[in-house]
Specification:
The longest helix has 25 residues. This protein starts with 6 loop residues before the first strand and ends with a helix. Helix content is 43%, strand content 15%. 47% of the residues are buried. The chain is an alpha/beta fold. It folds into two domains: 178 residues, 3-Layer(aba) Sandwich (Rossmann fold); 172 residues, Rossmann fold. It has 14 helices and 13 strands. A seven-stranded parallel β-sheet has the order 3-2-1-4-5-6-7, sandwiched between helices. Strands 10-9-8-11-12-13 form a six-stranded parallel β-sheet, with helices on both faces.
C-alpha cells in the first residue's frame, strides 16, 4: 500500500467492545495516512455515533437489527432492516469508494460487510473474544483476514485467516501517574483504590452487589472507590455507597479512561474481551464477573482463560453474593505477593501496538492484490 490518502469504512457498534477497537484502528490509520477519510457506519444514537463525532470521524447511520429469536415477527424484522441497511451501505460504498472495509462483529456490522462483499471490496474482521460471534462466523469465509483479540479455539476452521494480534487499544490509553489520576477524581492517596465497571452499557448485577460487598470487607476503612455504572444506574449506586459511608466516586461514563485505570490498584469488571485487553495493559489484579447472557457465554470462556493463568479471580453472577465477593476482595488486598503475581500474569495477554501490526498486515495483503 502506497503512502497516500485512504478511504476506509468501519462497520460495527452497539457496545464499547465493538466500537473501541475500530476507533483505535481509525486513529492509527489517520496518524499514518494524512488526509485520509475514515467513515463509521452504525446505528443512530448509539456509542459509535458519539465516539465518531468526538474523534472527528465521519458517521453515517444505517438500519440494522439484532439477530432474531424464534418468532416470525422477529425474523421478518431482521430481514427487512438488514436489507434496508445493506441498500443504504451499498449507496455509501459506491459513492465513497473505500480502499477496504473493516468490521468488528455484531449485528451492526452486517449491512456494511454484506454491501462490501457485493461491491467486491476487501473485507477485514476483528474478533475480540475467545469464541467468535455469529456475524464473524458467517463472514469469515469471505474475509481476507480475521484479527483476534484473544487466543482462539484450536477447533476453528480457515486457520490461515485467523491471526492473534490482540485487541487494538485507543491512542489515549497510557499510564498516568497515580497521584495525578487520583487528583483528577478529587481523591487523596489511600492504601487501596478499587475500580468497578460493567462495560459501556453498565452492569446492573455488579452495580447492585458491590456497595454491600465493599461494606463487608475487612479493608473498608482503607478503600476508596471509583465506580463506572453505565447510564441510568448512577443515582441508585451513589445512594447505596452513602448509606454505607463508603468513600466512592460514581460516574455513568468516563471519557478519560486512562485516569481511571491509572488511579486504581484492583478492578472488578465484566469479562468482555476489550475490558480484558485494557486491564492487561495496566496489569491490574482483577475480580471478573461475566455477563451471564453474553452470546455463547463467551464472557465466561474469556474469564476462564484469564483466571487459568492466575491473572484474575472470577465468579458467576449468581455466585457473586456480597459476602463471597468481599472475601475475594480481601484475599487480594491482604496479599501483596498475590497482587504482584496477578499483575505479572497479565503480560501474556497484552500485545504491544496491536493496531499497528493489524495495519501492517492489511498493507501487505493489499499490496499483494
Amino acid at each position: 500500500m502506497k503512502e497516500k490518502a485512504l478511504t476506509v469504512i468501519f462497520c460495527g457498534g452497539g457496545t464499547g467492545g465493538h466500537v473501541f477497537p475500530l476507533l483505535a484502528l481509525a486513529q492509527k490509520l489517520r496518524e499514518r495516512y494524512a488526509d485520509s477519510k475514515m467513515l463509521f457506519l452504525g446505528k443512530k444514537g448509539k456509542l459509535e455515533e458519539y465516539l465518531a463525532a468526538k474523534n472527528n470521524f465521519a458517521f453515517r447511520s444505517i438500519a440494522c437489527c439484532q439477530f432474531p429469536e424464534k418468532s416470525i415477527a422477529d425474523i421478518f424484522r431482521f430481514i427487512l432492516k438488514t436489507l434496508t441497511g445493506t441498500i443504504s451501505s451499498l449507496k455509501i460504498i459506491l459513492k465513497e469508494k473505500p480502499d477496504f472495509i473493516i468490521g468488528s462483529g455484531g449485528y451492526v456490522s452486517i449491512p456494511g460487510i454484506a454491501a462490501g462483499l457485493l461491491t467486491g471490496k476487501k473485507i477485514y474482521l476483528l474478533e475480540q473474544n475467545v469464541i467468535p460471534g455469529k456475524t464473524n462466523k458467517i463472514f469469515a469465509f469471505f474475509a481476507r483476514k480475521i484479527f483476534t483479540g484473544l487466543p482462539m479455539s484450536g477447533k476453528m476452521t480457515l486457520h490461515d485467516k485467523w491471526v492473534y494480534t490482540g485487541n487494538p487499544l485507543r491512542v489515549n490509553l497510557q499510564l498516568v501517574s497515580k497521584d495525578s489520576a487520583l487528583k483528577r477524581f478529587g481523591m487523596r492517596e489511600k492504601p487501596f483504590c478499587i475500580g468497578i465497571m460493567g462495560g459501556s452499557q453498565g452492569a446492573s448485577g455488579i452495580n447492585d452487589i458491590m456497595p454491600e460487598a465493599i461494606n463487608l470487607t475487612r479493608n473498608k476503612d482503607k478503600i476508596q472507590i471509583i465506580h463506572i455504572t453505565g447510564r441510568k444506574y448512577a443515582d441508585a449506586v451513589i445512594k447505596k455507597y452513602r448509606s454505607f459511608e463508603i468513600d466512592a466516586r460514581v460516574f455513568e461514563f468516563i471519557d478519560d479512561i486512562e485516569n481511571f485505570y491509572s488511579a486504581i490498584d484492583v478492578i472488578v469488571s465484566r469479562s468482555g474481551a476489550l475490558a480484558l485487553t485494557e486491564i492487561s495493559y495496566y496489569r491490574l489484579p482483577a475480580l471478573l464477573i461475566p455477563f451471564p447472557f453474553a452470546a455463547q457465554d463467551h464472557q465466561k470462556v474469556n474469564a476462564e482463560l484469564v483466571s487459568g493463568t492466575g491473572a484474575a479471580f472470577w465468579l458467576n453472577e449468581r455466585e457473586a453474593i456480597p459476602p463471597r465477593v468481599a472475601g475475594m476482595m480481601d484475599k487480594m488486598l491482604d496479599d501483596a505477593e498475590l497482587r504482584s503475581k496477578m499483575r505479572s500474569s497479565w503480560e501474556r495477554f497484552y500485545r504491544p501496538d496491536s493496531a499497528g501490526r493489524i495495519i501492517e498486515m492489511i498493507e501487505k495483503d493489499t499490496d499483494a492484490g
